[in-house]
Design goal:
It is a single chain. By secondary structure, the protein is α+β, with helices and mostly antiparallel strands.
């Protein structure tokens, strides 16, 4: 069994869900030689999150962002407002969506479904650079 760990720094993105599967794969080339394993992703931020969802229809990420904005609107009476009106809703969305993913690896590839992709969920209007820790274990 072997372990590999890399860090990814994603470029700043606007609010929304952004497909990052290709960036994740580029950060962990050791996966190509693994027969079986697990890939763990962890985002080091509280106003962004990670999710796996449909990567074929661009309406899906847009609809998800719309629903999240209804669940955690900017015009709610939040106490934490010192970083702007989009900050506390971003924390709520980040908690709902989660900060980590674990994906099985089989024969050198992620075992994602046909229409699945890895998404960065940027919950701020203008998020900064986002850092991910990518950890791979297997044989």
């Amino acid at each position: 069994m072997s372990w590999h760990q890399n860090r990814i720094e994603l470029t700043p993105r606007a609010r929304g869900l952004h497909l990052i599967t290709t960036e994740v794969l580029a950060a962990i080339p050791q996966m190509k030689s693994m027969k079986i394993g697990l890939l763990h992703l962890f985002i080091q931020h509280t106003s962004a999150s990670l999710t796996i969802n449909e990567n074929a229809d661009p309406d899906v990420p847009e609809d998800l962002e719309s629903v999240l904005s209804v669940i955690a609107p900017e015009n709610f009476s939040y106490r934490h407002t010192c970083e702007g009106p989009d900050d506390m809703p971003a924390h709520v969305k980040g908690s709902l969506m989660g900060c980590e993913l674990t994906i099985p690896v089989c024969n050198g590839q992620l075992s994602l479904g046909t229409w699945q992709g890895i998404f960065l969920c940027e919950h701020r209007n203008r998020g900064g650079r986002r850092r991910l820790i990518v950890t791979l274990t297997g044989e």
